[in-house]
Amino acid sequence: MYVPKVTLAFVLIASAAAGQEPNPQAMQMQVQKIAQERPREAEAAARAFIMLIAPDRVEGSRSLDSLKARSLDQYWMEVAQLTVQFDMVQNLTRRDTVRAQLVARMFGLEAYARELQRAYRGAPDAQRSALRTQLETLIGGHFDIENQLRVIEMKDIERRLAEVRAETQRRIEKRTEFVKWSVDDIIRDATRPQ
Fold first, then answer.
1. H or E stretch including 85?
2. Residue 133, in any domain of the structure
3. pLDDT tens per residue across span 49-97
4. What is the reported pTM?
5. Do the Cβ atoms of 157 and 131 come closer than 8 Å?
6. How many CA atoms, within 13 angstroms, populate the side-chain half-sphere of residue 140?
7. Dist CA 104 CA 90 (whole Å)
């Protein structure tokens, strides 16, 4: 199953910036667990997520149906992947809607890339060139979204750095006052009756 190597890194960046600490191993274990246990609610979540990330592609839901008819194991791996991604986007949305929208778009491209990957495996040589071109376009879009996430992260880092610099400068400028207040507190505590 296709999962871009860089996606996890950018999801981790986006999630960490939004106050989360995702664990890649735990996420993979969650995918495996869903694929093995096959809970009905995962199917509903996966289909809802497909409609969210690919509303313009009606084939998304039909693709799940045709995958289910071909291979239950592959179907459940796809359902599990989509379910875990759906959960990640929901958690990210609570903290940062801009990043969540970008990550959801990225996941939409990944779902479509996995669909094309499955089509490529069974395609005759004459169709493989067209599928490759489609994949190149998708991965180019994926790359662009990754860069948008990087720009957002850089702006956040720059903002936080400016805040720390400003606070440090304020403390330097008010050093005498801070030292006086601290000494006053120490003396006050020392002279209190015990």
1. helix 72-95
2. yes
3. 988 887 776 565 677 888 888 889 999 999 999 999 999 999 999 999 9
4. 0.75
5. no
6. 6
7. 9
